[in-house]
Amino acid sequence: MRETNPHHPPAWIASARLKEVTGNVQVARNLIMKGTEMCPKLWLALARLETYENARKVLNKARENIPTDRHIWITAAKLEEANGNTQMVEKIVDRAITSLRANGVEINREQWIQDAEECDKAGSVVTCQAVTRAVIGIGIEEEDRKHTWMEDAESCVSHGALECARAIYAYALQAFPMKKSVWLRAAYFEKNHGTRESLETLLQRAVAHCPKAEVLWLMGAKSKWLAGDVPAARSILALAFQANPNSKEIWLAAVKLGSENNEYERARRLLAKARSSAPAARVLIL
Predict the structure, then answer these.
(1) What keywords are annotated for this sequence in UniProt (predicted)?
(2) How many domains are there within the chain?
(3) Domain around 19
């Protein structure tokens, strides 16, 4: 196939892969080098066979030969991440956008998000997040940002690209730090897909920005309670009281926390205080 159709990239890759798996890495490398002359797209396959330093040279050469291919830039970012140079990743991605535009390439937001999802699934988390941040705002009207980003995050979750979704929520929270709805969506994401620590860290930031959002305080207290840390749950509810002194939901949560941990006297005192401070029907029925 390689002889009959030398401009067919899969034929070169298949020949090189065969040599690679049989231990002839140098022969595989030579084949791909020859293939790059016939099929410029084979630069990425060559980079995969090289050492770190040589792969960098190959990718630089590839950029000179094909200045309009975003995959070369993304591969370069992944290479740096894989070799511990995470501080280089964002610079490479930013330079990619600038360079591709200078070469007349339109930045297709959907394509790049798909690239980010593929980086996520390949374990290149830093690259995935850098790509997401770089393109998430492209082509979006200001009034559509929140709605679009929430949809983007849900789409990434449905594709199993959780780090992409996390990067989108983080970006949205920077843009809308006072929006309870965005904090809540991000919190539910961490609750369903993150760790208890990631959820609680997010909720601490959430209540600092939205202290009147009772549900965010209650989620934090419940997380501590479910983990068996009753004193921490009580501390969160105490801070919640300070921010929302007339909230019946927070009073009820404190009463429940006391009664379910056999602190009946504490619960009774809280209930009496609740009746005087937040005289809602639900409290009085208790």
Answers:
(1) mRNA processing, mRNA splicing, Nucleus, Repeat
(2) 1
(3) 1-50
Q: Classify residue 42: in a domain, yes or no.
A: yes
Say if residues 93 and 70 touch (Cβ distance below 8 Å): no
What are the Cα distances from residue 201, in Å, to 42, 176, 234? Answer: 44, 18, 17
Using CB atoms within 10 Å of the CB of residue 137, give its burial: 0 to 12 exposed, 13 to 18 middle, 19+ buried: middle
Q: Is residue 36 part of a domain?
A: yes
pLDDT digits (tens, 9 = 90+) for 121-138: 999 999 999 999 999 999
Contacts of 60 by beta carbon, 8 Å cutoff, 6+ apart:
none
Residue 221 lies in a domain: no
pLDDT digits (tens, 9 = 90+) for 9-23: 666 667 777 777 788
What is the C-alpha separation between 265 and 49, in angstroms, rounded? Answer: 70
Query: Which residues, other chains included, contact 194 with Cβ-Cβ below 8 Å and sequence gap of 6+?
Result: 166, 202
Asked if residue 25 belongs to a domain, the reply is: yes
Q: By the 8 A CB rule, do 184 and 201 touch?
A: no
Q: Which residues contact 11 (CB under 8 A, 6 or more apart)?
A: 1, 2, 5
Q: SS3 breakdown of the chain: % helix, strand, coil, rounded to 5?
A: 80, 0, 20
